[in-house]
Structure prediction request, 254 residues.
Amino acid sequence: MLELKNIEKSFGNVNVLRHINFSVDDGEIISILGSSGSGKTTLLNIILGITQPDCGEIRFNTHDITKVPMEERGFNIVFQDYALFPNLNAYENIVYGLRNKPDISTPDEVQDLIDLLGLREHLNKNIEQLSGGQKQRVALARTLVMKPRILLLDEPLSALDGVIKESIKEKIRQIAKEFHLTTIIVTHDPEEALSLSDKVMILGSGTILQYAKPDEIIHAPKDGFVTEFILRQLEIKRSNILALFDGGEVRTAV
Prediction:
């Protein structure tokens, strides 16, 4: 279990996070949902170990890891831009981390992961030859071969759409359940958060406005801001989709 207790973080005179208290059970998928400036990226960085909180405590499986360096936490992240090595092909990217820690995953485990993510036919391709969805799957594979104790995903679907997005969502769900892997997703998209996660945390102005199962957030929002935020973002998304067409012709891009 991951627990954050009374986490606070300021940059200068700006309070970015205030009174952050929550826990994540083993194997759960949670989404941290909020608009730009809500504090979600800072919270992700604190969990990962990139940023230290001003006060509070982070515990993992009852151990205090608040001051444990990032490289010793065993948490891994897939960044929004994938952060793949352009000079390596897909397979070389996947196994890159095993150069220094070859015993973490066996060759059979690597091959099983490649098949699970449907990457067999793309292994010898250069990164620029891959689609967005294929790059995302390579980035996931590269992270998963290192057997992270927690998987962190930063806006994992923001560059994808349609069938590709649904496919990646299904892969994330499948991986989390199959490996009993605690997964934390940062997103600004309520549809993504509500459809993918076991629980959703809504951040606003650095505080947790609601942390609950998707059904509870939809049917029993804690306050008017949560309702307005969810409905506004979903309406913007619907409007963008409708804006693609004008009299049957593509007019603009989402």
